[in-house]
Hints:
This protein is of the alpha+beta class.
Amino acid sequence: MRLQYLFRSPGSDIELGDSQLHLPFKITPTQSHPFLILRDYFEAIKSFILGDARKAFERILEEVLGSPVSLNDVDMLLIRSEKHGAFHHVASIEFIMNKAAAKFALATFLSSNEHWFRNECANLEEIQLLTKPYQFTPRLYLKGRHEIARRGQAETLFFMVSQWLEGYHEWHLYRRSNEKGSNITVWDDDQGHRPVSRQEAREIFYEIGFILTYCYDFAEHRRVGRWSNAAGDFVVGSKAGSTEVMLTTVRDYAPVVDIESLKSNQPLMPLTFFFFETLTLARLDRHEGVGNLLWCEDWCIFPVIKGIFDALEEKASQGKLPPTMPSEFLLLLKSFTPEEIETLLQYTLTQLGNTNPQLPGYLTLRLAQHAQELYDTIQMFQI
């Protein structure tokens, strides 16, 4: 088996030589690991695949390719570093054989992020059961770990192997100095970053609203939390002329509110807080994913609301919700004044401030206008 260690680069891959593999392993773009180098990262993945997880990978390959596979039949194994994030690092692993090939995503969590690893695995498994027959997240195939020890220091790498979303790409807001308003660009590393039409942009926001609402657990009021457009949590692909969106990660799946602290007898109030949290987070991004915070104009509000209510009606039609619930929820939303919406949004600000200290100050400046724009759109919205 030939083995290659690669860095993903737009339009091509960069094969890593000995000098690059001796560079420090970056925890963040500016922080190096205390002792790991790049070779440790790549060789840990290789050892995991060819060691303890060997039989598991052979079973997965047989399932994906439809015939028995031995890793001895693999001509080439490509381990490609795709992305480094705050919570985990993403690689693609590609098995190439004489007449077949298979590619998977492998997320690596350091021991300091073991909590997020366990959360992610459990949340993905639960979401995939809850949202059948839809598939909104990559299928989770395998999880494992690998120990690295050197001169009295130790690190544990936790691995999560999942479906590779071929043809799906990150997208981000961008704003040019000579243009009015925000637009969206899709980060297609093969064909180049491309701007999308306003109609396709609306479809992306619609899908975000639909997916998050379909994932909402009405029994326990749990929702997908800590999601972020800036982190690339939603990716977009185009198939048969339609825009498709997938949720790549579920870091948090917890109640949207502390029900006891609200002391409310209104059963739709937790859904109300979910609604306003979703409409707030949907408008947030960073310029092309990494720059200053950006706030999308109000053209994105209607498609998100449409996605939310289409998901509610879909679940009601499946008997998962009372048939009158979507219309009752819309009546509740229409009953709020702009001032009441702003008050409800204050709770969202408090919660978001717990995850990102920058957000409360940034959002406070936009809160009154945000509340008015939500009010205006809600009043015109009809099921």
